[in-house]
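Q: Joint fold for the lines below.
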Amino acid sequence: MRVLLLNNRLKPHTVHMAEQMETKLKGMGAQVFIDNGVQKPGPVSIDLLIVLGGDGTIIRAAREYAQSGVPVLGVNMGRVGFLSNIASNQLEEKLERLLAGDYSIDERMVMEVEVCDGDRPIMTVGGLNEVVFRSTAPRIIELMLYVKERSQGVYRGDGLIVATPTGSTAYSLSAGGPIVDPSLQAFIVTPIASSITHRRPLVIGAQHPLVIKPQDAREAVICVDGQVHMEFEPEYSVRIKRAANPLRMVNLTGALLFDNLEGRLRRNEIQ
Amino acid sequence: MRVLLLNNRLKPHTVHMAEQMETKLKGMGAQVFIDNGVQKPGPVSIDLLIVLGGDGTIIRAAREYAQSGVPVLGVNMGRVGFLSNIASNQLEEKLERLLAGDYSIDERMVMEVEVCDGDRPIMTVGGLNEVVFRSTAPRIIELMLYVKERSQGVYRGDGLIVATPTGSTAYSLSAGGPIVDPSLQAFIVTPIASSITHRRPLVIGAQHPLVIKPQDAREAVICVDGQVHMEFEPEYSVRIKRAANPLRMVNLTGALLFDNLEGRLRRNEIQ
Amino acid sequence: MRVLLLNNRLKPHTVHMAEQMETKLKGMGAQVFIDNGVQKPGPVSIDLLIVLGGDGTIIRAAREYAQSGVPVLGVNMGRVGFLSNIASNQLEEKLERLLAGDYSIDERMVMEVEVCDGDRPIMTVGGLNEVVFRSTAPRIIELMLYVKERSQGVYRGDGLIVATPTGSTAYSLSAGGPIVDPSLQAFIVTPIASSITHRRPLVIGAQHPLVIKPQDAREAVICVDGQVHMEFEPEYSVRIKRAANPLRMVNLTGALLFDNLEGRLRRNEIQ
Amino acid sequence: MRVLLLNNRLKPHTVHMAEQMETKLKGMGAQVFIDNGVQKPGPVSIDLLIVLGGDGTIIRAAREYAQSGVPVLGVNMGRVGFLSNIASNQLEEKLERLLAGDYSIDERMVMEVEVCDGDRPIMTVGGLNEVVFRSTAPRIIELMLYVKERSQGVYRGDGLIVATPTGSTAYSLSAGGPIVDPSLQAFIVTPIASSITHRRPLVIGAQHPLVIKPQDAREAVICVDGQVHMEFEPEYSVRIKRAANPLRMVNLTGALLFDNLEGRLRRNEIQ
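A: Joint structure:
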């Protein structure tokens, strides 16, 4: 059994936790590797990934490890997250079940975002929550949305969000999008402050790749999961498709992905 | 080849059209039956259903014939509809292709709405667009939503809509719901004038049946597709699941179901 | 000093409270009258109105007494209200200040709703929160809005709310309207589930009377403050204007009307 | 009679129009001055300001001349604007009425935006539409709103708009704000993509100055009327109050400011 512990080296309590867990797991006979964001294990195949950190750390883990198909356990190290499955003080008592593989798996769709300059791909990156196209100054930009190579019309406003169901409770929700069941294979297209006031959020089956092209979009940016930023040049186009593999999240409680959503949203707002 | 023509006997131009088409189709060697809403054919198996009328007539047809799996062609007899595939003046030139089966099929998810008084089922009805739970007087009612037998919390307000993707462009849209791709198997749960202002539209995978129960809902009604109404008594509960078979709609143009949605919405609003 | 105590005879604790306060106030030299909803004082002029009850009781008091200009103190007898100024357990310690007139006054705009059958007025009633026009069954109705005798176009959907600033935190908020400062003299026009999706809430200066006429509105109702209901017949029209006098509410704390609005909204939703 | 013609030197047709009008007006006995954005008349008192250009040019004119109280006529030189009163081809026939003062005046509230670094004012600028506080990257910022020195709580999200009634049909509308009658003296506070999903637009009487302070707002900008931009540093605070004088707009048609709003919005969206 090979276990990879992923932590955030800038947050000392996650470093400390990783050390503690390493000792425990080794004592239970597991092989342990650590990825602290800088030091990474070599190209070794692993059986379980334990992420010590908030949603941001899990998102980073998804980008790097989701396509390998390894089961991922998110351990909540601070404020309540949407992606973590258990609290840090519960981890120790679950280690045996984890090593025995005694859990179910929730699959979360991942998106693959490919930015092209004309026809030439210049970046491909995975996203767990969303890709955002937005003006930098508070100025109207115009974007075209294509589904199956057919234009769905222009979006005028601050920009556009294309989210996964997992991302539907993040930025897309703030911009007025619906909450979408993670069991659905879908993209949520949510305009940000659209000047075409009857433009509405769309939920599109993820079997269709989407393409976004700027029509009039000087000084705009592309941002994936709040972590990867790049300028959105007028000659760029962005192709968004479902990644080949979903993120496979460890579920120890049997909870529905939907459970207590309202409660999480409210706590999130009050905090 | 057995063709059923369905029209609305209260709209003379659909009666007239049915007579014309009957003659044509017979001349082409088809057997023709007519359902005008009162006179109905006996229990005969048919190969094609042609609906002459607006969205309301197609919705009625779906309720009666969708589960038989027969392909349905909606012929638009008046203002532009969301469900009709061709205009009435285009029908004649398409008859040959129709009889030859030269078309593709778009599947539209249908819902089955079961109303129970305690444990006893008292009505089961199919729905193509939505089921609505609403107060009659402008008064707050409280409804509970259950997914997989777990409560998703209370909805306070004028009521609640549970829509199919097809219905996402109808009443649910007016109440603030997203537009959902008909290729998705999903329910859209949209609150109407919710007094809990952060209650948001949900899109839930249709593999989960939903249950709605009144918590405090005197003087409320249940309404399916704007056509079937009944009072919603405090001891009722309503179970909503995906019907066994989708509505199979004839697609002669190869158009994406999404095509020109914006245009249809706008025309609809201006008319 | 003549004080009128208004309570809700159906809520025993308000009856009890009224008796206690009557004794106290008499002991302090005041003349005391009681209105319990059925027994009412004769046509006597009063100097202070103390309302023992929730927002509903204060709304009823406003309808009956606002135009007399008497200062009104709302005493919160249960869950937190938007209109009450003090909690019931604080009343006793404030009696001296009340009798001495040691308080400031917050003015709240009141609306006058006049329903006409053709040209003939058939009902005139005051409203503190809102007048609602809504379909009874979940069916689209069409209403015309006129400002200064000019049409502002048709509203298609479940109906329309015309609210005062005080009412902007009640039903209008649930339907998507803004929160409006009670110091403004304005009507808030908020569509309910509008099928014309770009119809937006309007805030109109209250110097303009508004007129609402049904265009296609069978089976609709008019409802003032959730308390006065009548059917809305196709030949009716409703004229809404600002009442001659505002409701004059006693303010003992110097609090801004806006203070802690968010907190009140949240408590309201959680309760 | 002294008339100032204001045009946009970068738009040749407005330059040409200014020259034509200058000749006409001189022939009618008026003294004429020209402000083309670079060349400006000296400090001369004028009786009428004619703005040749779109809403952007009128907004610039308001910033420079509103406080002088001079009547302003907006002449629409291109696409339909919200602020222009007549089309360019109608101007010539109206010159006589203009010189005779045969028109009414619509007053539009103007805001004064004062940016302070700690206690030290570093910029004061007039605004006709709105002041926007927004993140540059798509990242959450936190802003505090104060009314009468009392906190109204934190706004988390992309940012915040404080608009005048005139600006309520511009950016604020896109972000979900209501349409507000220009006759009202009010500020409209509209959150942009608020992560606190029950944060709602507020309409606040303009007798209260508002103060906005960043709580956590690195990399944010302040933008007035889409024309004046500056970085919003963590130690800044912004005070927004009603300007001493409104913009006085010439009304030649007697039209209500509200007239045909829907039509203008729709044209704007389609264009």
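Q: Anything notable?
A: Residues 106 and 249 of chain C are 5 Å apart (CA to CA). Residues 12-27 of chain C form the longest helix (16 residues).
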